[in-house]
Give the backbone structure.
Amino acid sequence: MPIRFVTSNEGKADEAREYLDDVERVDYDYTEVQGDLATVAAAGAREAFEALGGVDPVLVDDAGLFVRALDGFPGPYSSFVEDTLGVDRVWRLCEAEDDRRAHFRTVLAYAHRPDDAGDGGDGEETGESDNAVQVETFEGSVPGTIVAPRGDGGFGYDPIFEHDGTTMAEMSTAEKNAVSHRGRALAKFADWLAGEPAD
Ligand code: ITT
Ligand code: NA
């Protein structure tokens, strides 16, 4: 069964394809509730799962850049800030700071309806909510430093996010996945999926 990755961001889908066999990117504009990344991702996955028919599992990814000297800005507003200020101006805000440490964080939320047929434990049929939708979340983060933009790869804030001397925009997808917030979360998710009975 394909995993529908509900995201407007082709870069996220490309990164996910390194961990998951059958990823289909889907545009669906789920509500971004107020809250931390996990709350936003889980609510988005649940909403998208139902809106897309309630059968194929759905994956949502909510990410943010947190700059220490800016009290975690842009954090949950990272998407809005990229669209309005832009990445170069986020660099210029940080340029004035001595401490340019930051981290990137993402939460993947996977909404699915486990197929319980045949593995009902004690064998009792309750006839209800045996296969209610479930949402699992997987978190990943990576420390880094905000630097003047370098590199043409990746997307979003990658040109200004340096990890171990290299910006994420200077890395290939595989190199970025090996160290990134999303790569860590995807690895956890792929491990978890491998342990699940097939739908
Ligand atoms: P969807 O919500 O449609 O998935 P988005 O790009 O808006 O796509 P987020 O809200 O999760 O995704 O991302 C918040 C911001 O952080 C947005 O500006 C992204 O471009 C940026 N971003 C997310 N992951 C990133 C990464 O791995 N490297 C650099 N920037 C990233
Ligand atoms: Na978004």
Notes: The chain has one domain: 3-194. Residues 117-121, 123-127 have pLDDT under 50 and may be disordered. Strands lie at 3-6, 23-26, 58-67, 73-74, 101-112, 134-146, 161-163, 166-167.
